[in-house]
């Protein structure tokens, strides 16, 4: 059943109008009719079973509150150094499907892409649309937030209970324990920040700076992963450890 995120708090048996873009999707893409059912999620991340009252006007009637929570029980923030091409959009979509809560684009020394605040703000509506659609498709209760581009020096206020940076030199030294030990310590409600570099990885001075903030280096195994693969590997491992091992 198709899901839509609503920019208001829903009340049972009280009709509301859905956004025009969602109304268009309901009528023209999904070919829904009056009386068809959809799921809507409100600002409190609560899901409701709803009936379409008037498909052309986009009028929706909530008929049942659903006790569904498809979120990870730990809050994950992904810091991702800007890659080339459309890889950032790909990672946005897939990390959202895998349960990420917050995304922070990072500008590091080896980033080829340099986004100014103005350029980023022009792209932001597209990024938010990708996250919204991925959240709807994957059955999320919430849409991940995305911050403006940060530098390493600006990451300190965003540090969480646990903070890891994927670093290939750690893998080369066969030090594979940090990620495993962190996942073993995580409890429901904990917050975890994971940092992944761009194609060229991180400069040694950047790793030192992160270590001084309390961020620990971790290996992602014996193989060197592409920049767009590494965050998805991390999100998959986190999801597996929290949802499929209990």
TrEMBL record:
One of its GO terms (molecular function) is rRNA (uridine-N3-)-methyltransferase activity. It is found in: Cytoplasm. It comes from the Bacteria. The keyword S-adenosyl-L-methionine applies. Its EC number is 2.1.1.193. It holds the Pfam family PUA_4. It catalyses: uridine(1498) in 16S rRNA + S-adenosyl-L-methionine = N(3)-methyluridine(1498) in 16S rRNA + S-adenosyl-L-homocysteine + H(+). SUPFAM superfamilies: alpha/beta knot, PUA domain-like. Keywords: Cytoplasm, Methyltransferase, rRNA processing, S-adenosyl-L-methionine, Transferase. The keyword rRNA processing applies. Residues 71-238 form the Ribosomal RNA small subunit methyltransferase E methyltransferase domain. Residues 21-59 form the Ribosomal RNA small subunit methyltransferase E PUA-like domain. Its main location: cytoplasm. One of its GO terms (biological process) is rRNA base methylation. GO terms for cellular component: cytoplasm. Specifically methylates the N3 position of the uracil ring of uridine 1498 (m3U1498) in 16S rRNA. Acts on the fully assembled 30S ribosomal subunit. Belongs to the RNA methyltransferase RsmE family. This is Ribosomal RNA small subunit methyltransferase E. It comes from Faecalibacillus intestinalis.
